[in-house]
Design brief:
Largest sheet: 5 strands, mixed
Shape: elongated
Distance between the termini: 31 Å
Helix content: 25-40%
Strand order of the largest sheet: 2-3-6-5-4
Length: 261
């Protein structure tokens, strides 16, 4: 404020981005009609396991991979137990249309329909709607993570003019939102792994400070040959602002936190 002509600066709280996800299969098939009422999309939501999302994040499963190779990896990992929520059928694994958001994220459109006419003509429009929906989720406009949308059936108008992008893109977006809302949607919160070093007499202050900020310690041990203790804890990113100041206040400046995401 001193530098900029002494104008008072408005400061808001730091922004923490959350992710949106789902936990169950859709309770019902979701239907969305296009604005001209001539096209219908029937879809269902299904969660992707955290293991799957990590494979996508690590680049083991990518959009540019060979389809059969990708299907093989998916079936080996997730094709064993049909009762499992995250089960992948071999046919569905070969029919992944796209990843989202930004063509690379851990959300997927899979084509589980049988014998639909003109389906590949609307593929690009459905993908565009899906990218839009996964970029701005239904709960609070945040990115989605771990969402799989299965296209069950599509009814299209015979005339190509009536199934252009203007008709299909908003329809696809709405049906993705419906699939998420019927699949027990949840918010994922980012959490820091926090390592705190302190002398033995200050350990009590750490626990008090963590409890106030929804953190929980899961490991504590003495560093061999020194009087220092090492405490490991999980701390929500949203609560971590001003944490080190509070921690030092409650331990008399003896504890040193280090947070990694």
């Amino acid at each position: 404020e001193e530098d900029h002509a002494c104008i008072p600066i408005k400061k808001s709280d730091p922004v923490v981005s959350y992710k949106e996800t789902i936990t169950e299969h859709s309770r019902m098939t979701c239907l969305s009609k296009s604005p001209n009422k001539h096209n219908r999309l029937f879809c269902m939501g299904q969660p992707l396991s955290e293991d799957f999302c990590e494979l996508v994040d690590d680049g083991k499963i990518t959009p540019r991979q060979d389809v059969k190779q990708r299907a093989k990896i998916i079936c080996e990992k997730f094709g064993a137990d049909p009762e499992n929520v995250n089960y992948w059928d071999a046919n569905d694994a070969r029919k992944i249309w796209c990843f989202g958001p930004d063509q690379t994220g851990p959300n997927i459109v899979a084509d589980a329909s049988k014998g639909v006419q003109y389906l590949n003509e609307i593929k690009d429009s459905v993908i565009a709607g899906f990218q839009w929906a996964t970029n701005e989720g239904v709960l609070c406009d945040e990115n989605m993570r771990g969402v799989r949308v299965n296209i069950k059936d599509v009814t299209l108008h015979a005339d190509a003019i009536h199934r252009g992008g203007g008709q299909i893109i908003p329809t696809a977006r709405r049906v993705v939102y419906a699939s998420v809302l019927t699949s027990e949607p949840r918010l994922l919160e980012p959490i820091y792994l926090c390592e705190i070093q302190c002398p033995e007499n200050a350990v009590g202050g750490i626990y008090g400070c963590l409890t106030k900020r929804r953190g929980h310690a899961f490991d504590e041990g003495q560093v061999q040959g020194t009087p220092m203790f090492n405490v490991k804890a999980y701390l929500p990113v949203n609560e971590s602002f001003g944490f080190s100041g509070d921690l030092r206040a409650s331990t008399g400046g003896q504890a040193f936190p280090q947070c990694v995401f």
